[in-house]
User: Which sequence fits this backbone?
């Protein structure tokens, strides 16, 4: 038998490939770098290179390679860029933080890049095996990052809980994959859809539906879908704050990318609408429980964790309606708006954190709005955007997802979403009240350094601009949405 | 000419924004900030006036076509929303009211806020508010309207909480914001439904096709409903939040914790009128549903009467005016519900002028009396503050509906419409209640003037003085306005009727201008005069101690107590009827008082986010219990799929 | 020659795998020892591997996806175990316990 080297188009996984290679190199180069700030800057360069690789392919016809395992379309590129932006801002946040916490080790940045490239692969994958490997790959990176502040007992605990929970969830995910493979005989997502289209009996096969359910759960836990969310507050609270910020923004984006691929390519609504109702129910639960639990929190990091759960519910509203025109755009728009906003919101926590000490109580924010005007203003923008006040990005994001949900006939989902976003106004406003309308006899010292302010500034600016120039952003995130097939 | 208009319209909004920007970044001095803010708002008024003149010069049928799209805002799938403005006669008169009255209030504020701790910030908020309100009235689609709608809510929150050192200011600002959010939720739901049907949120698309809504059914919360009714009902929720109607009205009286000129601008002349504006703007939709239009009338009439009766029992000078505002908004909402749209707008305009005057006058009194607000501690201020007294009288006469002053004409037109009938028929009962309410209005205003200005000063611990010219000049201007503003829709001339006609032609809602009903006018005026005379006899003739109990309490007993306690609305809300409100209130008190010292908090703190605490308890910290919940979730999801297959 | 495919129905193997999965699941849920939990999870993964191999062998012996997936799953499980065991050692060093229920400072 003649052995043939398959024709492979490496550009289909361009950005993650560049990041991986760069991260490997950086791991070695770092050994010869004394000033870890240089490593950080080199990591930023790698990110820029990764993002640039995809540029020529934006707006082109989708490309598929690696025997149909990898895909490069505009959705993937949009996710790549969102992830690049989030990771870059995380690096800016981490630079001085790591030093202050005496955990400045060069490995942080390569591990971050590896994780990011795994996340990108979740958007590029068109095969269940690829999605599974990417998920595990990014999880292992995150376990390490969560435990990075090893002198802190809480950081270690966060890593351990995340690991146990993640490994447990992975068991279900792979079981689901195996069942889908068993029924359809393939792990290629496009082929799965073709099989389902051709075979009426397959669509009602219990094994297939169980497999689909486990797939949704396996990815759903990464985006903190209720009731698979319980790891979120503990892990966000314990992890080093830049890592919490990164997890809340990037991991969510990646998890949503994977979910999108699963329901967009493998189980399209027109073929198998069964999953819609259960995801809608879970979305409603996620919104309600996330928002209510956030109200009772006094720790900012936990509050932001619950808020991130609540927002996952809002984004799921668009996933439910994914068959509607404009749904993918709304979905991606929300992910971008949410990622930027939540990322920025963590910055003020980072600025308050001293070496060894933990200052996360909402009361510690008292008066910060006046002492750190730029940081305070940015935080106010983030909170208002999360609360969904126009004209900030968060408002349009909410509007778009509720509108597509309504359009798809899930008016009750939009109704619950609107009501729970009324509730959310409380705890976001509480932050603003504390920052501006309170004083503290002994103000908590805050550390704002140039990189941190740069990161916050970029995020705040984008949140505002995204609100006013909604249209260009929408165009950017979803030109050829149907191309995934 | 249209090109000129296209450049003028964005300028109207940009000018106040510019003022806010300059004050934020360049100005540190309070007085100078006031000048900049006033100039910005004044310039917007001048530009608005020019645009108004140009618009009035256009041929009749072109007046509704000044539609300007600046850029494409959202274009996601079928949803396309422009960032665009519509300058038609309705927006034009609103712009003039907002910027005109707004400028005077800005100028007044320079004097009033002279001793404030943070005047610059105050003026920034004020300018931002004006800009948001202008966006609201100039928008050419509902989403942009919603932007302004939320914007004014936010600015109102900032202004009410301006003196946040005071606990009630923080509390009131949160309350206002949250109640407004509840209203916004209704509006947003209406917009979703509108979009679902029309595939657009542009006025230009929706209004000509509004008749389609009549026959449509929609499967909503309570089974199938007529689509037009569902949409109008959701809008009514929004109106009730923003225009302080029953049941979402309790935030407005509390909002008096803000600086008085801000109350004049926001809680009298502009923001609270946006609900009325929304109904009038959406008249094509409301015309499709008799049921909700009737409901609107009843809500308005009930609010008008309840609020007026409460105003009788208040001792705080600003609270009387606050309830009076709620009551007058009830008049407008009722008129809008009846389909008497011009009457609603007419009253909106005149009320904007004379209520601003009254609030500024009250501000002048408070300023001159060194922050005393309790009317029992006033009395006899006529001699110390002659200008304030004179101008205040003009406002009082206008509000009480005494002929030649503006309120007489506009209020009479509303009452006249109720009896004369509109396309929805006549509303004799509502009309009668409105006449009684008008008499109550005259009563509480005469009571207020008697207690504040007449007699002898009861509390002599302070020395009252007249305010400086920068505050009295706006008062004079507004006093003249309150006296002559009736001319804009003078019976027989009907300037406003004719000017607004093109707007209502779109929805086929043009009404024949109402002829002046002389017997009705005589009844109203006689009743008002009689009520005023009684109040003068009761309050103006006698000497009171500074802690007197209102004499009406003796005659009216429990009723008066009910008025005094605002019909127990706050208590009812706080205890049983509306659970979320309870959670809100206790929650707010908890975050505003983290030590939990306050007795109120101790009792209620436990209820705070009741569910939130339960959820916290579920988060045990044991990773094994988390995985167990995960497993239960798996069983539930798989159970669903199993169920779906069997079915 | 009698191959396994003819000797034993697919359902039997799937049942064994499901049983193994449940045993692993029970272990992961009931053990307090962190290593015990990790072993339970390993068992779950191995049950899935049996599934994958069985599907491959019975349904599509020419398409090797299932086979490869099983190998990949083993690799991933090994990587996860490596990190997990390292973490167990770290936990033991700071807290002198590997009881998962005693690692509960983060809650609420």
Assistant:
């Amino acid at each position: 038998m003649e052995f043939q080297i398959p024709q492979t188009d490496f550009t289909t996984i361009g950005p993650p490939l560049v990041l991986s290679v760069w991260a490997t190199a950086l791991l070695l180069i770092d050994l010869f770098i004394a000033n870890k700030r240089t490593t950080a800057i080199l990591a930023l360069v790698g990110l820029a290179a990764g993002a640039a690789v995809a540029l020529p392919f934006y707006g082109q016809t989708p490309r598929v390679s690696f025997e149909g395992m990898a895909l490069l379309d505009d959705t993937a590129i949009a996710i790549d860029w969102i992830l690049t932006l989030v990771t870059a801002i995380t690096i800016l946040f981490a630079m001085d933080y790591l030093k202050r916490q005496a955990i400045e080790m060069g490995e942080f940045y390569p591990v971050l890049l590896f994780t990011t490239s795994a996340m990108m692969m979740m958007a590029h994958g068109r095969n269940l095996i690829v999605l599974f490997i990417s998920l595990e790959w990014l999880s292992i990176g995150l376990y390490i990052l969560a435990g990075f502040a090893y002198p802190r007992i809480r950081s270690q605990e966060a890593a351990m809980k995340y690991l146990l929970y993640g490994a447990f969830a992975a068991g279900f995910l792979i079981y689901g994959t195996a069942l889908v493979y068993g029924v359809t005989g393939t792990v290629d997502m496009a082929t799965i859809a073709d099989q389902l289209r051709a075979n009426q009996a397959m669509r009602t096969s219990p094994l297939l539906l169980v497999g689909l359910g486990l797939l949704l759960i396996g990815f759903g836990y990464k985006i903190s879908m209720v009731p698979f969310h319980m790891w979120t507050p503990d892990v966000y609270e314990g992890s080093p704050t830049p890592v919490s910020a990164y997890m809340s923004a990037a991991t969510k984006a990646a998890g949503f990318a994977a979910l999108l691929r699963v329901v967009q390519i493998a189980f399209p609504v027109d073929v198998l609408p069964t999953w819609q109702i259960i995801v809608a129910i879970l979305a409603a639960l996620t919104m309600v429980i996330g928002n209510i639990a956030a109200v009772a929190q006094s720790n900012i990091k936990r509050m932001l964790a619950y808020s991130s759960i609540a927002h996952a519910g809002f984004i799921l509203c668009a996933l439910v309606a994914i068959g509607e025109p404009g749904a993918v755009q709304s979905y991606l728009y929300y992910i971008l708006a949410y990622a930027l906003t939540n990322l920025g919101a963590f910055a003020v926590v980072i600025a308050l954190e001293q070496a060894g000490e933990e200052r996360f109580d909402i009361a510690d924010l008292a008066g910060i709005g006046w002492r750190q005007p730029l940081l305070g203003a940015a935080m106010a923008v983030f909170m208002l955007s999360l609360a969904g006040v126009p004209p900030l990005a968060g408002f349009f994001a909410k509007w778009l997802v509720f509108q597509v949900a309504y359009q798809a006939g899930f008016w009750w989902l939009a109704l619950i979403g609107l009501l729970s976003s009324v509730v959310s106004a409380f705890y976001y406003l509480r932050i603003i009240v504390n920052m501006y309308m309170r004083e503290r006899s002994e103000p908590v010292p805050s550390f704002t350094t140039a990189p941190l302010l740069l990161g916050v500034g970029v995020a705040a600016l984008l949140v505002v601009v995204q609100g006013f120039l909604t249209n260009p952003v929408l165009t950017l995130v979803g030109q050829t949405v149907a191309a995934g097939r | 000419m249209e090109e000129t208009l296209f450049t003028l319209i964005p300028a109207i909004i940009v000018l106040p924004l510019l003022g806010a920007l300059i004050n934020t970044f360049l100005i540190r001095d309070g007085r100078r900030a006031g000048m900049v803010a006033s100039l910005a708002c004044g310039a917007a008024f001048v530009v608005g006036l020019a645009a108004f003149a140009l618009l009035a010069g256009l041929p009749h049928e072109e007046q509704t076509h000044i539609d300007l799209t600046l850029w494409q805002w959202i274009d996601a799938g079928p949803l396309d929303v422009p960032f665009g403005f519509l300058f038609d006669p309705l927006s034009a008169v609103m712009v003039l009211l907002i910027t005109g009255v707004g400028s005077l209030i800005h100028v007044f504020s320079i004097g009033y806020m002279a001793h404030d701790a943070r005047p610059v910030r105050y003026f920034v908020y004020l300018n931002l508010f004006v800009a948001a309100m202008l966006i609201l009235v100039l928008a050419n689609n509902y989403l942009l309207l919603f932007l302004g709608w939320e914007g004014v809510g936010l600015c109102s929150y900032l202004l009410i909480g301006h003196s946040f050192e005071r606990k009630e200011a923080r509390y009131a600002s949160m309350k206002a914001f949250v109640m407004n959010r509840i209203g916004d939720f209704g509006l947003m739901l209406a917009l979703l439904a509108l979009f679902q049907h029309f595939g657009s949120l542009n006025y230009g698309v929706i209004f000509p096709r509004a008749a389609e809504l009549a026959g449509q059914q929609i499967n909503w919360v309570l089974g199938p409903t007529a689509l037009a009714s569902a949409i109008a009902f959701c809008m009514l929720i929004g109106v009730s939040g923003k225009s302080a109607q029953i049941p979402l009205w309790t935030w407005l009286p509390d909002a008096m914790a803000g600086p008085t000129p801000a109350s004049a601008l926001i809680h009298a002349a502009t923001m609270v009128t946006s609900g009325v504006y929304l109904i009038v703007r959406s008249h094509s939709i409301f015309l499709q549903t008799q049921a909700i239009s009737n409901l609107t009338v009843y809500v308005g009439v009930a609010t008008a009467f309840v609020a007026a009766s409460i105003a009788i029992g208040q001792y705080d000078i600003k609270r009387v005016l606050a309830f009076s505002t709620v009551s007058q908004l009830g008049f407008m909402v009722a008129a809008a519900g009846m389909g008497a749209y011009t009457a609603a707008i007419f009253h909106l305009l005149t009320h904007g002028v004379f209520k601003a005057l009254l609030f500024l006058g009250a501000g002048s009194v408070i300023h001159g009396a060194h922050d005393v607000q309790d009317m029992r501690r006033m009395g006899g201020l006529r001699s110390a503050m002659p200008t304030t007294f004179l101008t205040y009288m003009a406002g009082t006469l206008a509000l009480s509906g005494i002929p030649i002053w503006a309120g007489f004409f506009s209020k009479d037109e509303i009452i006249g419409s109720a009896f004369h009938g509109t396309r929805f028929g006549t509303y004799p009962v509502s009309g009668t209640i409105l006449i009684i309410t008008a008499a109550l209005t005259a009563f509480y205003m005469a009571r207020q003037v008697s207690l504040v200005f007449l007699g002898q000063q009861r509390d002599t611990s302070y020395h009252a003085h007249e305010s400086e010219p920068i505050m009295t000049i706006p008062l004079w201007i507004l006093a003249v306005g309150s006296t002559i503003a009736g001319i804009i829709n003078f019976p027989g001339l009907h300037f406003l009727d004719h000017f607004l006609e093109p707007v209502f032609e779109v929805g086929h809602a043009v009404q024949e201008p109402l002829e002046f009903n002389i017997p009705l006018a005589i009844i109203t005026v006689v009743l008002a005069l009689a009520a005023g005379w009684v109040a003068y006899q009761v309050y103006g003739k006698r000497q009171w101690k500074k802690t007197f109990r209102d004499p009406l309490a003796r005659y009216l007993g429990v009723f008066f107590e009910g008025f005094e306690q605002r019909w127990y609305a706050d208590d009812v809300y706080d205890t049983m009827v509306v659970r979320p409100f309870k959670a809100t209130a206790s929650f707010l008190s908890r975050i505003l008082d983290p030590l939990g010292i306050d007795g109120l908090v101790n009792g209620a703190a436990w209820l705070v986010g009741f569910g939130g605490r339960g959820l916290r308890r579920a988060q045990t910290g044991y990773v094994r219990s988390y995985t167990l919940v995960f497993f239960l979730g798996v069983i539930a999801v798989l159970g669903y799929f199993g169920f779906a297959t069997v079915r | 020659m009698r191959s396994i495919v003819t000797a034993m129905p697919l359902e039997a193997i799937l049942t064994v795998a499901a049983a193994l999965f449940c045993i692993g699941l029970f272990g992961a849920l009931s053990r307090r020892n962190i290593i015990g939990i990790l072993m339970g999870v390993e068992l779950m993964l191995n049950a899935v591997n049996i599934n994958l191999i069985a599907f491959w062998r019975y349904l599509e012996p020419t398409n090797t996806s299932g086979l490869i997936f099983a190998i990949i799953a083993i690799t991933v499980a090994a990587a996860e175990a490596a990190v997990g065991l390292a973490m167990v050692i770290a936990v033991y060093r700071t807290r002198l316990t590997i009881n998962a229920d005693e690692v509960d400072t983060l809650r609420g």
In short: Residues 484 and 576 of chain B are 47 Å apart (CA to CA). The two ends of chain B are 67 Å apart (CA to CA). The first strand of chain B starts at residue 67 and ends at 76.
